[in-house]
Design the sequence.
């Protein structure tokens, strides 16, 4: 039995997007401590619930599948059946305000997407994409609360650090690669980076998710035998396992992907490979998170999502050497 306010939150994207959304949900929970928050999200991101107790329930909506209109109808019917008191939705699509209105939920909060959104929403919040993504999402609840949560918080306690340890997670989602969104250096660079770190006396751990199998195998063929190297691929069975491993490392090196945002929550010093995406929007202003970028002169950089949906063929922005990366650490 739910006695507090029933809140439906909607955010469709990858696991990184859901981590970005956590501060918004945390501030909502602070404002309405007895509330019951249901998050509608894509099936690929359902593991976010393993990282937090601020989400009481999830509802899966496959908006990028073949039957997206059926899925949206399913969401509307679910929302009407559950009698939510409030809905907060990310997404700048003009149809979002119509979907929220069709749910019949009394209080509706979303981004301004035109005159219709001002009519159909309780509050149409200005969308400011030129800021850290957590802050962009958090703007949605400024009409509702004075609480301000700046960074993601997850239910993984601080870990005891392993001295002199560098953890490397090279991968990005397979979906982004399939869509032509190349956002990181190749396996050869990662392998050479590990060798340079080992040569300097660092203890190096290598981790990855299911999508990274091919990359990990290529890296392992390059890495030289060393007592200071440990292959942790396959040992992290969940996002929570990965968070704990990131928390134990003194330094974390990764691509622009979900593990980056886990590292931000774990407050581990992190070096992130950035090419065509905008580091100013994807990492907080912090001494703990350092972008590693090529010194190219591409006039369009950063271009991915801002100017194009796929990366260009030259990829000058990702011409980062192993020595460039190692020099940041050693």
Sequence:
């Amino acid at each position: 039995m739910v006695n507090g306010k029933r809140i439906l939150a909607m955010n469709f994207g990858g696991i990184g997007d859901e981590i970005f959304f956590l501060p918004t949900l945390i501030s909502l929970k602070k404002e309405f401590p007895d509330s019951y928050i249901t998050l509608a999200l894509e099936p690929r991101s359902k593991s976010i619930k393993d990282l937090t107790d601020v989400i009481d329930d999830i509802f899966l909506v496959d908006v990028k599948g073949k039957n997206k209109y059926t899925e949206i109808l399913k969401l509307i019917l679910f929302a009407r059946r559950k009698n939510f008191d409030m809905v907060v939705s990310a997404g700048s699509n003009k149809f979002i305000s119509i979907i929220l209105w069709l749910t019949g939920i009394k209080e509706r909060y979303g981004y301004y997407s035109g005159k219709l959104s001002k009519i159909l929403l309780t509050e149409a919040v200005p969308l400011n994409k030129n800021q850290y993504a957590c802050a962009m999402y958090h703007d949605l609840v400024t009409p509702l609360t004075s609480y301000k949560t700046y960074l993601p918080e997850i239910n993984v306690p601080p870990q005891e650090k392993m001295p002199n340890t560098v953890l490397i997670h090279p991968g990005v989602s397979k979906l982004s690669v399939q869509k032509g969104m190349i956002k990181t250096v190749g396996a050869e660079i990662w392998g050479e980076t590990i060798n340079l770190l080992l040569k300097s006396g660092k203890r190096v751990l290598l981790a990855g998710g299911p999508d990274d199998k091919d990359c990990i195998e290529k890296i392992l063929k390059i890495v030289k035998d060393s007592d200071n190297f440990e292959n942790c691929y396959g040992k992290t069975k969940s996002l929570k396992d990965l968070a704990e491993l990131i928390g134990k490392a003194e330094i974390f090196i990764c691509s622009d992907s979900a593990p980056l945002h886990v590292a931000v929550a774990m407050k581990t010093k992190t070096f992130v490979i950035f090419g065509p995406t905008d580091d100013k929007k994807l990492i907080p202003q912090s001494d703990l998170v350092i972008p590693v970028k090529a010194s190219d002169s591409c006039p369009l950089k950063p271009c991915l999502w801002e100017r194009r949906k796929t990366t260009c063929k030259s990829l000058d922005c990702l011409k980062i050497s192993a020595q460039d990366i190692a020099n940041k650490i050693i």
